[in-house]
């Protein structure tokens, strides 16, 4: 299998601000009057070019989710939640539709183990010149135990064949139009990770995919990555998936656990 690598510019990377661990560092996203290269905005949401484009052969943008530096996707009011996810998906698909890029990725980092550098809530939309992310995507990574689903609407599952291993939550909807339940399932997954997960978790990623007429979001709690995946690419499947799916259904959808 051909290996595909993104090239990271370390000279630019060393200039990036960081305030997840360095709590005393100023937040550049809070200095809204100083933001430059703004692409679009729907207050308080702002999409702008990334000031520190560390990825080569790529067009990097940042989506600032809110003007509240301590805001969080897990607790956004429904009005703002839908405004944000609708805005993000629109600009992601619009960038994809230009045909300029081989593919366009849309993702979110949260917390010290997520790979992010700034704590202010934000996402990233990145156009890749030479890499098609869909070549690494297989349908089975979205298969799982159904937690909740709407008739002819979004579906919320817990992966039985996770991409990296252990616990991965999937949300899917048709590409035709935005459905509010999609964002609500996404928010529930994040809220569960931060508040009810059986292992203390303070970090997660959200990855969006546009595959075969569907929009997917994969929500992944982040811990130290297992060496079996790092060294051998072997995902592990935990033995308590059924319990976790039932627990989520009980907490958020008032569904009693089966005996």
Brief write-up:
The chain has 259 residues and is an alpha+beta fold. It is 23% helix and 25% strand.
What does this structure look like?
The chain has helices at residues 10-13, 78-97, 180-195, 227-232, 241-253, and strands at 38-42, 45-49, 58-64, 103-110, 122-128, 144-149, 155-159, 169-174, 204-211, 214-221. It is of the alpha+beta class. The protein folds into two domains: 10-134, HIT-like (HIT family, subunit A); 139-204 and 225-253, no CATH class. The longest helix is centred in the middle third of the chain and has 20 residues, at 78-97. The mean pLDDT is 95.
CATH homologous superfamily heading of the largest domain: HIT-like
Tell me the total number of β-strands.
10
Question: Radius of gyration over alpha carbons?
Answer: 18 Å
**Structural class estimated from helices and strands:** alpha+beta
User: Helix content range of the residues, please?
Assistant: 10-25%
Largest sheet: 10 strands, antiparallel
Tell me, what's the shape?
A: globular
């Amino acid at each position: 299998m051909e290996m595909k690598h993104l090239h990271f510019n370390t000279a630019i990377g060393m200039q990036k601000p960081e305030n997840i661990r360095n709590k005393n560092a100023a937040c550049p996203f809070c200095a809204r009057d100083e933001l430059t290269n703004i692409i679009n905005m729907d207050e308080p949401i702002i999409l702008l070019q990334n000031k520190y484009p560390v990825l080569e052969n790529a067009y990097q943008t940042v989506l600032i989710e809110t003007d509240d530096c301590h805001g969080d996707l897990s607790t956004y009011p429904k009005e703002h939640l839908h405004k944000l996810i609708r805005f993000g998906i629109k600009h992601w698909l619009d960038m994809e539709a230009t045909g300029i890029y081989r593919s366009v990725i849309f993702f979110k980092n949260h917390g010290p183990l997520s790979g992010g550098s700034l704590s202010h809530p934000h996402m990233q939309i990145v156009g890749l010149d030479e890499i098609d992310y869909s070549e690494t995507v297989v349908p089975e990574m979205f298969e799982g135990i159904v937690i909740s689903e709407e008739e002819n609407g979004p579906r919320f599952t817990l992966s039985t064949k996770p991409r990296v291993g252990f616990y991965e939550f999937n949300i899917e909807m048709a590409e035709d139009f935005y459905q509010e339940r999609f964002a609500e399932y996404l928010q529930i997954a994040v809220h569960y990770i931060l508040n009810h997960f059986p292992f203390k978790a303070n970090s997660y990623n959200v990855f969006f995919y546009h595959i075969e007429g569907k929009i997917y979001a994969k929500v992944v709690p982040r811990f130290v990555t297992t060496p079996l995946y790092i060294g051998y690419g072997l995902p592990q499947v935990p033995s308590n998936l059924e319990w976790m799916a039932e627990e989520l259904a009980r907490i958020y959808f008032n569904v009693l656990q089966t005996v």
